[in-house]
Amino acid sequence: MVKICCIGAGYVGGPTMAMIAYKCSDVQVVVVDIAAARINAWNSDRLPIFEPGLDDVVKACRGKNLSFSTDVEAHVADSDIIFVSVNTPTKTRGLGAGKAADLTYWESAARMIADVSKSDKIVVEKSTVPVKTAEAIEKILTHNSKGINFQILSNPEFLAEGTAMDDLANPDRVLIGGRETPEGQRAIAALKAVYARWVPEDRILTMNLWSAELSKLAANAILAQRISSINAMSALCEATGADVSEVAYAVGKDSRIGSRFLNASVGFGGSCFQKDILSLVYICECHGLPEVAHYWKQVVQINDYQKTRFVNRVVSSMFNTVSGKKVAILGFAFKKDTGDTRETPAIDVCRGLLGDKAQLSIYDPQVTEDQIRRDLATGKFDWDHPQHLVPSSPTACKQVSVVWDAYSATAGAHGICIMTEWEEFKNLDYKKIYDGMEKPAFIFDGRNVVNVEELRKIGFIVYSVGKPLDPWVKDLPAVAY
Ligand code: NAD
């Protein structure tokens, strides 16, 4: 029986390993982590992450061929294939701070693997890493190997949170990169045999290590670039009276472009896009390619611009001040169907409004009060360092309250900001909400989920990213956006 161990029981390690166990009943899968609380949660009825369909898959395999453990070393020593799915955050200090990927967690995992291994292993990079990381990992492993053969493979993960289980069950492609030596090719074949149980052969792409590593960074950069492109257009739409949804629809009809990832919004979030683009920027700079670095950096800069622009719209529309005014924040997760708040635009928007002394009332169906307060207290980039490794205490900020439904959040508010495209925000009783708010009542839709015309009929002043401006907003004195 093939034994697989995955180091890192996070958003990637947990779901991917659950899917492997589910699809391969003859493969023994154990997911290990140094975070005991996380492992306990994986072993409980309340899993540590919310992902549609995940509960069923975990329950079907846990206790059979899937287990979760903190006994990292024993399980690593015992396995044939070791996936490493630890976090690879942006460095906060030292060389490359604010851009380069921090490989501390990866390096310590590699050293531990070398330390405890007594038989040959295939080590799989599941984390997103800078191109050429496998070379460094190989050096760490072989210089400490005690005669054991390690083969390194790159197998980047393309799942998207919120649809992770579907993405894993029906991936567009699985990438496996390895050395072009006979041993490297054998390792590729062994991993391919695992995926081939449920992924059609023509979707399993094998290639050299560096192509596989770079493909993941390239895919994330290009996805994020589409969002920043349409967001840049949304600013021009607002200035000219064009409607960004119509523009995106027309552009997306071109089969060379396609319609996905062309939704204008307050900006992209999530743990990967910004971190991976900054990592790409740093790699380009290190390779003497400043023009290429500058090109990709713009994708992040437009994203920051979009968040700032949104805050400026809110404040300028509400008579140039939100001081002391209650503003409801609907949604805090970086997208719907996840409780993940890493790099969510809601954090920057809330900080912007708090800076203008607003009173925020925040509601998200999947994010806890503790998490929201922690996010608002954590410094840029620090969020991606696991909480048990870099503790930060939640802020007791008196300007923030966290509530458990949209109606309490909006009661008595001057304005509403929609930060996440949760389905329930489309179907709220907006007449009831309007009646309970201060007047004039404002809605700022950062996700284009509301029906602008209907809300205007109720009496709201509505701003929706990239849509023709409400006469109220249009007639305001010019502000720099
Ligand atoms: P995560 O923070 O949710 O999980 C990482 C886990 O690794 C944490 O639980 C941490 O405790 C554990 N860990 C760190 N060092 C360890 C060690 N030495 N031994 C054992 N456990 C250790 O991160 P994630 O979202 O699962 O992302 C993991 C990697 O996958 C990152 O490189 C990320 O860029 C990449 N990725 C993420 C996504 C996504 O949607 N989240 C998608 C594709 C790729």
UniProtKB/TrEMBL annotation:
UniProt keyword terms in alphabetical order: NAD, Oxidoreductase
GO biological process, one term: glycosaminoglycan biosynthetic process
PANTHER family: UDP-GLUCOSE 6-DEHYDROGENASE, UDP-GLUCOSE DEHYDROGENASE/UDP-MANNAC DEHYDROGENASE
Recorded catalytic activity of this chain's protein: UDP-alpha-D-glucose + 2 NAD(+) + H2O = UDP-alpha-D-glucuronate + 2 NADH + 3 H(+)
Domain UDP-glucose/GDP-mannose dehydrogenase C-terminal: 328-452
Enzyme class (EC, first level): oxidoreductase
Protein name: UDP-glucose 6-dehydrogenase
Pathway the protein takes part in: Nucleotide-sugar biosynthesis; UDP-alpha-D-glucuronate biosynthesis; UDP-alpha-D-glucuronate from UDP-alpha-D-glucose: step 1/1
SUPFAM superfamilies on file: 6-phosphogluconate dehydrogenase C-terminal domain-like, NAD(P)-binding Rossmann-fold domains, UDP-glucose/GDP-mannose dehydrogenase C-terminal domain
Molecular function per GO: NAD binding; UDP-glucose 6-dehydrogenase activity
UniProt family annotation: Belongs to the UDP-glucose/GDP-mannose dehydrogenase family.
Gene Ontology CC: nucleus
Xref: InterPro entries: 6-PGluconate_DH-like_C_sf, NAD(P)-bd_dom_sf, UDP-Glc/GDP-Man, UDP-Glc/GDP-Man_DH_C, UDP-Glc/GDP-Man_DH_C_sf, UDP-Glc/GDP-Man_DH_dimer, UDP-Glc/GDP-Man_DH_N, UDPglc_DH_euk
Enzyme Commission number, as recorded: 1.1.1.22
Catalytic center residues: C272
The keyword Oxidoreductase is annotated on this UniProt entry: yes
A Pfam family assignment: UDPG_MGDP_dh_N
Species of origin: Aristolochia fimbriata
Binding site for NAD(+): 8-13, 33, 38, 86-90, 127-128, 161, 272-275, 342
